[in-house]
Amino acid sequence: MKTLHKVLWAAALSNGERIYEGKGDWIDRENDLSPWQRLDKKLASQKIEIRSLWLYVNEPDGQEFHLPGSGDPKFRIFQERDKPYDYNMFRAIARDTGLSSTEDPNKMKVGKTVETDHFTVIEAYYPGETISARVQKNAIQTIPLKDFTTLGYRLQIWVNERNPKMARAVVAPMPE
Questions:
Q1: What's 84-140 look like in SS3?
Q2: Residue 2 within any structural domain of the chain
Q3: Global pTM?
Q4: In a domain, 1, yes or no
Q5: DSSP 3-state assignment of 165?
Q6: Stretch 96-109: mean pLDDT, rounded?
Q7: How confident is the model at residue 1 (pLDDT cuts 50, 70, 90)?
Q8: Is residue 43 within 8 Å of 49, Cβ to Cβ?
Q9: DSSP 160
Q10: Residue 69 is part of which domain span?
């Protein structure tokens, strides 16, 4: 079964392999796991990891949208930053719906859906930090007050299937 999406994912793995959704063994197959689910199964069974993840547009101009990798990035700024500890991919739908007021101020009238956008989304997960709050008792002794861990965050890239030039990067906290 041919994939219906024009924005597809690609991954570079820790064993040196590169996988492209929609090509080779990584096509959508009827009554089978999705290519992303099959990749997840492969990672677990072979004990390998994703080193970088990106989206590509399956059209002649072939735009690409890359997340920072966990391998050896070429860009110096990414070499000095935390590396992602995991990656994810999903698809989402956004709809704009018209709302109008009614005579009752506590109710709104829902109109028909005005527009629907389909997105392919990739995300990289980054860990939180352990922060130690300490108090200086005197010049020699420091007393730890509390250690706590901040929530991690995720960096997402959202690419619109209808108009891939409308790509957005989003930084979001990890869900609790």
A1: CCEEEEEEEEEEEEEEEECCCCCCEEEEEEEEEEEEEEEEEEECCCEEEEEEECCCC
A2: no
A3: 0.74
A4: no
A5: coil
A6: 66
A7: very low
A8: yes
A9: E
A10: 7-173
